[in-house]
Design brief:
heterodimer, A: alpha/beta, Rossmann fold, 2 domains, six-stranded mixed sheet, 23 helices, B: mainly alpha, ABC transporter involved in vitamin B12 uptake, BtuC, about 75% helix, globular
Chain lengths: ~575, ~290
């Protein structure tokens, strides 16, 4: 898109001192190091992208710059001045604005009033006699909200709310603008519109740091990208370099080393040529990425599936997290769900288990409609959820956690409590030893075992594993994966969400690829490996061909990820 | 002399424990401050008053009926009014309980008039001598009741299946629901239990002091001071917090004068909030300990 060329075309002021400098910045929360020794500089007029998976520390980084949180070590300089000791409002007045992922305007006020408040609050300017409302209107014109200036902010669409969030940040007339996932929750054309808006703000001379999951936005806008993973800076470079960077690909898609997937199955994702060839081959079979079309082909199990999700939509306020999504899991299957952050994986498991309300669509389990059933009744029907982050009852012992899993959820169970307990202890022997320990005191891997055990104690028919191995050491991950065949052998179907994509593909019968709340592809692991949808979903670029930034690929792929041929 | 005040305060503290326990339970499990706690206490006192004047039974004996009635009322209020509001957030719940406070005050005034009432029994005006100090019999009863209630609640939460479900729902309602625990039911029972426990506190208030339609709020403040001091939502913290407030109030009142009782207590609350906002004995969340 032309946005990239507009902003990228300007001369790089190479000789000027950097506007923002971070030197060895470290941030700890208790024993956890959220950011570790981060150093970089931002030139005046630059547009810097920051990407990275969940928990990488991106939002923390913005919070340190804006003063919402304090650095533990290191220093931050803005135009030569130390920032890291100043309170947040002083930093804002120096000219650092921040737009948040979730807009929080004053809903009862008009759009114009919302922008006037920060205009009035502004103090970093010389008091000219220009009327403030003129100023506010000009900002609204830039943001495309002028014709809606008298509307109540609460009645705006999500896209307009995002525009308003940007307008409010601009009203402080910042020199540096921090954008925290402003494209989150937007789709299709909306993303291009917000991208253009950011580009035109940048064209007015505002330096921008952009934290974003929607890779299309980063690729279209950023001059330079920094990649964070677990608080470390792992790569830095131009967007197209980053998309080919082996360590970055490894972070998003998993790599061969450290993942013990069988060698013949692990097609190297870092070999674009092979991927492209395979993609072309498979395109003859999958011309459309429609999940229904694909899944009704040979891959869908012929008997009625145990779980059948039809046209499911879920909303969080104005943000639509799942969009008319179709999903099924058959008896005895392992179904993997993959997709980048914010794709809707966790929302899907929570909707299936009844923890978030469904806006549209139906959920059938074992032939029974459960769309409106409360969570505890679904659990009694045989749906067990192993939550992301485990969510154990930390004060209670391992044994008590396992008991709680069984006491309330057991429907006409075929096994006794003692049998099931024995089964879980055999699956994870360490739990037998630690039965009397407080669950919160165990190691992360042992806690995950308790969480799985607690879910299994209900003798479920369907086990939803949300982020099976997140944050765990490789040896522990091996143990958890080794338990899967045994779980299947008990007649339990598994829906698996797993950040190690290759591991996930290695065990799955079928794979769904999610992108922004939609199923963009569904097929067997081999089909998914061969298909560009996977890289598309994680890296925002299909198979990373050596194309210059701003090539048609970035605008084309929006809703039609299949552009490989 | 100081010893006498220490002993007096210790037993008065027992009474404070019984009035704060319901607030602790609701906060520990539902993370909500029930602003109508004072009215739950005073309402129980009125119920006991009615029952005692009808049957001429001992007020404490009336509790056998009043506590179950309060359980049912508490359960219904939670299920029908508060549970549906939970998705709308903490502020909505706070406002709802504040609304309950106003409704209850008005009802008390309409039914019982604005006069100050009190409960009477053979032991309300007698005393017991302990270490040479004469302590009101009713305070001794209150301390015994406080110990029974705290230990009983602890045993219930620790050993009974219901208690384990309550602790699970307190710690993570989402995780509890996904292992089959009916969280709204658990919340209803918890609120009912808190109301039943408060029936004991309310009846003891009626026996020790006077009460009128609007005296509830001052008891709410005192309960709140106790549970902040003890660490919000902690059972043992409530026990220690109650006893400490009782002692502090008696000793300080003897030094600077009894008219400053409230000032002393709330000044202490402010200091605690500044110095150690998590309280002194707290487990931060959950009745889990």
């Amino acid at each position: 898109m032309q946005a990239a060329s507009t902003v990228g075309g300007g001369p790089q002021q190479a000789n000027e001192a950097p506007l923002l400098v971070l030197r060895h910045v470290t941030r700890r929360f208790g024993g956890v190091t959220a950011l570790n020794d981060i150093s970089f500089a931002v030139r005046s007029g630059e547009l810097l992208g920051i990407i990275g998976p969940n928990g990488a520390g991106k939002s923390t980084l913005l919070s340190l710059i804006s003063g919402a949180q304090r650095v533990s070590e290191g220093e931050i300089l803005f135009a030569g001045q130390r920032l890291d000791r100043l309170p947040a409002h002083a930093i804002a007045r120096l000219g650092i604005g921040r737009a948040h992922q979730i807009p929080r305007p004053f809903g009862r006020m008009t759009v114009l009033q919302n922008v006037l408040i920060p205009v009035h609050a502004r103090r970093n300017e010389d008091p000219g006699r220009r009327r403030l409302s003129d100023d506010a209107e000009e900002i609204l014109r830039l943001c495309g909200l002028l014709d809606r200036k008298d509307r109540q902010a609460g009645s705006l669409t999500l896209l307009d709310l995002k525009r308003l969030e940007l307008a409010r940040a601009l009203a402080l007339r910042p020199r540096l603008l921090l954008l925290d996932e402003v494209a989150a929750g937007l789709v299709g054309q909306e993303i291009e519109e917000i991208t253009q808006l950011i580009a035109s703000i940048h064209a007015r001379g505002v330096t921008i740091i952009l934290v974003e999951h929607v890779q299309a936005v980063v690729r279209a806008l950023a001059h330079r990208v920094i990649v964070l993973d677990w608080g470390r800076k792992i790569a830095e470079g131009r967007p197209e370099e980053i998309a080919r960077h082996p360590e970055v690909i490894a972070v998003y898609l998993g790599s061969e080393q450290g993942e013990q997937a069988p060698a013949h199955q692990t097609m190297s994702v870092s070999e674009p040529a092979a991927a492209m060839a395979a993609a072309r081959e498979s395109d003859s079979r999958h011309t459309l990425p429609s999940a229904r079309a694909t899944s009704t082909a040979a891959v869908r199990p012929s008997p009625p599936p145990l779980l059948d999700v039809q046209h499911l939509s879920v909303d969080y306020g104005k943000l639509r997290a799942l969009r008319s999504l179709d999903f099924s899991a058959g008896t005895g299957e392992i179904v993997a769900v993959v997709g980048a952050n914010g794709a809707g994986k966790t929302t899907l498991t929570q909707a299936i288990s009844g923890l978030v309300p469904v806006s549209e669509g139906r959920i059938l389990f074992a032939g029974q409609e459960i769309t409106r059933l409360p969570a505890h009744q679904r659990s009694r029907l045989g749906i067990a959820l192993c939550h992301e982050g485990r969510r154990l009852f930390r004060e209670q012992t391992v044994r008590e956690n396992l008991e709680l899993g069984a006491v309330y959820a057991t429907r006409g169970a075929t096994t006794s409590f003692a049998q099931r307990l024995e089964r879980v202890y055999d699956l994870f022997p360490v739990l037998r030893e630690r039965a009397g320990s407080q669950a919160g005191r165990l190691s992360g891997g042992q806690q995950q075992m308790v969480a799985i055990g607690r879910a299994l104690m209900a003798e479920p028919r369907l086990l939803l594993l949300d982020e099976l191995s997140l944050g765990l050491a490789p040896a522990v991950v091996d143990q958890l994966f080794a338990a899967l065949p045994q779980i299947l052998a008990w007649g339990i179907s598994v829906v698996l969400i797993e950040q190690h994509i290759q591991r996930s593909l290695a065990v799955a019968d079928r794979v769904y690829v999610l992108e922004r709340g939609r199923v963009v592809f569904c097929g067997t692991p081999d089909e998914v490996r061969a298909h560009p949808a996977l890289q598309q979903a994680y890296l925002g670029v299909a198979a990373a061909p050596a194309s210059p930034a701003g090539s048609p690929a970035t605008s084309e792929h929006e809703q039609h990820p299949v552009s490989g041929s | 002399m100081v010893l006498y005040h220490l002993i007096d305060g210790f037993f008065l503290g027992g009474l404070y424990v019984t009035i704060a326990l319901g607030l602790t339970l609701v906060f520990g499990v539902m993370n909500t401050v029930n602003l109508a706690q004072g009215e739950v206490l005073i309402g129980s006192a009125y119920l006991t008053y009615t029952l005692a004047s009808l049957t001429h039974l001992d007020p404490l004996l009336c509790l056998l009926l009043v506590a179950p009635i309060m359980f049912v009322i508490g359960y219904l209020v939670q299920r029908l009014l508060l549970n549906p509001l939970i998705p709308r957030g903490q502020e909505t719940l706070l406002v709802a309980t504040f609304g309950l406070l106003l409704v209850a005050e008005t009802l008390f005034g309409l039914i019982y008039g604005n006069n100050t009432l009190s409960l009477s029994a053979s032991y309300t005006l007698t005393g017991v001598t302990i270490f040479g100090d004469t302590v009101r019999t009713i305070y001794v009863i209150a301390l015994v009741a406080a110990l029974f209630l705290v230990v009983g609640t602890h045993l219930l939460l620790t050993y009974l299946p219901l208690g384990k479900a309550i602790r699970a729902a307190a710690e993570d309602p989402g995780a509890a629901a996904s292992i089959g625990i009916n969280v709204p039911l658990v919340y209803g029972i918890t609120f009912g239990l808190a109301a039943a426990i408060s029936a004991v506190g309310g009846t003891l208030i009626g026996l020790s002091f006077g009460f009128g339609p609007t005296t509830g709020s001052s008891w709410l403040l005192r309960s709140f001071t106790v549970i902040v001091l003890g660490g919000m939502g902690s059972l043992w913290g409530t026990l220690l917090g109650g006893l400490l407030i009782g002692v502090l109030e008696e000793v300080a009142a003897s030094i600077v004068g009894p008219q400053f009782r409230d000032l002393i207590v709330f000044a202490f609350l402010v200091i605690v909030l500044i110095v150690r906002p998590e309280g002194f004995f707290g487990q931060r969340v959950g009745v889990a300990k």
